[in-house]
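Dear H.,

Thanks for agreeing to be a second pair of eyes. The structure we're designing against is below in token form, covering all 389 positions.
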């Protein structure tokens, strides 16, 4: 569409005064191309002005509030791309998705909430397809390394071959209050999430042809392929990978994906299982849910020193016939430093790069693919082939 090119701002960042929003603003300030017109948006102009002064950049300030649909509509109508870091998205996210879908404005977020993504597909995908808006969720550690890493891996195989792919995640970092709140909220709503997912599967039209795509939950245990103990990882990432595979022929006629967390120490693996199970149980009741959220209040996060020590590595093992390909995606602090980088580069990619003609709710692999991977490689996130098979 050509209309967004004439808008006042190339990129608007909503939620810039939050923890991850602030990191995203810092990244944009440091890496914006010459002449980029951008804005910081939120409900507290004083905090936004203080952030602008700290960044030392000439950036506009826009009033926007999740409780004020008119303000969100204005934000969408004056922007080519809108970034939002305001979560939990199931609680605060839909009004902005609706505004961007209606205005034909590209939208990116960093949600890892499957229920939110499924609800937005059901309610706003059709509108966005009609207006030309690209609604791209999960543009942070959930789920760019996994989505683009899976695409990078299947591209190493000849076309039109069945592929079985497994992703193995290892990482080190510190949670922020916002991430904890989103996780606890998702745990508390698992029944609603399952119901909405079933509704989406009924509503989503089947893809043409005979291609098969499956996200398969693996089994915990010792995996000789990576020489580590593995646990099936119940994140949104397998869903995102499977949706990309449904849309793109590169994944072959029969594609299967499994997703794991890895640990060299079986005691650590057992401890992680206990922590996740305990958090899930405590999230079911309001009193214990409040106690969990007090552990790390919203708006707090790891210090620069802690982020400097953060890291992630995702190893992919793809098999097709007698060929076995191993690849890896790796970077720094997964939850914040690299997530802010991935989110900002996604917006820059949508704003400036020549991309396939897509619209509606689309994944990063479908909307941006190799163009975004090239940006991330230039920004220091590595994609490499370990074994070409």
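And this is the sequence the design step returned. I haven't edited it by hand at all.
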């Amino acid at each position: 569409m050509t209309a967004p090119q004439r808008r006042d701002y190339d990129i608007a960042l909503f939620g810039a005064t939050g923890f991850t929003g602030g990191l995203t603003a810092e990244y944009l300030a440091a890496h914006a191309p010459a002449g980029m017109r951008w804005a910081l948006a939120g409900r507290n102009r004083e905090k936004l002005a203080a952030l602008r002064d700290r960044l030392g950049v000439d950036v506009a300030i826009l009033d926007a509030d999740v409780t004020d649909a008119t303000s969100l509509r204005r934000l969408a109508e004056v922007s080519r791309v809108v970034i939002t870091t305001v979560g939990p998205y199931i609680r605060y996210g839909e009004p902005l998705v609706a505004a961007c879908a209606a205005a034909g404005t590209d939208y990116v977020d960093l949600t890892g909430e499957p229920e939110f993504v499924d609800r937005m597909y059901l309610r706003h995908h059709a509108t966005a397809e009609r207006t030309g808006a690209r609604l791209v969720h999960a543009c942070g550690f959930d789920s760019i390394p996994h989505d683009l890493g899976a695409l990078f891996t299947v591209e190493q195989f000849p076309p039109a071959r069945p592929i079985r792919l497994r992703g193995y995640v290892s990482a080190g970092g510190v949670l922020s209050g916002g991430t904890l709140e989103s996780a606890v909220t998702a745990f508390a709503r698992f029944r609603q999430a399952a119901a909405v997912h079933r509704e989406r599967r009924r509503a989503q039209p089947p893809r043409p042809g005979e291609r098969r795509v499956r996200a398969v939950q693996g089994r915990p245990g010792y995996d000789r392929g990576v020489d580590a103990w593995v646990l099936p990882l119940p994140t949104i990432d397998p869903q995102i990978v499977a949706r990309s595979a449904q849309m793109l022929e590169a994944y072959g006629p029969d594609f299967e994906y499994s997703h794991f967390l890895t640990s060299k120490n079986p005691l650590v693996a057992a401890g992680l299982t206990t922590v996740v199970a305990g958090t899930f149980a405590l999230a079911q009741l309001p009193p214990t849910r409040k106690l969990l959220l007090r552990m790390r209040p919203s708006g707090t996060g790891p210090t620069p020193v802690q982020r400097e020590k953060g890291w992630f590595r995702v190893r992919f093992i793809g098999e097709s016939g007698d060929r076995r390909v191993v690849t890896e995606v790796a970077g720094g602090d997964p939850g914040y430093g690299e997530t802010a980088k991935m989110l900002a580069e996604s917006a820059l990619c949508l704003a400036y790069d020549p991309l396939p003609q897509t619209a509606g709710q689309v994944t990063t692999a479908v909307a941006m693919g190799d163009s975004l991977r090239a940006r991330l490689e230039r920004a220091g996130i590595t994609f490499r082939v370990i074994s070409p098979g």
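Two observations from my side: The CA atoms of residues 192 and 365 lie 27 Å apart. The chain is about 45% helix and 25% strand.

Warmly,
E.
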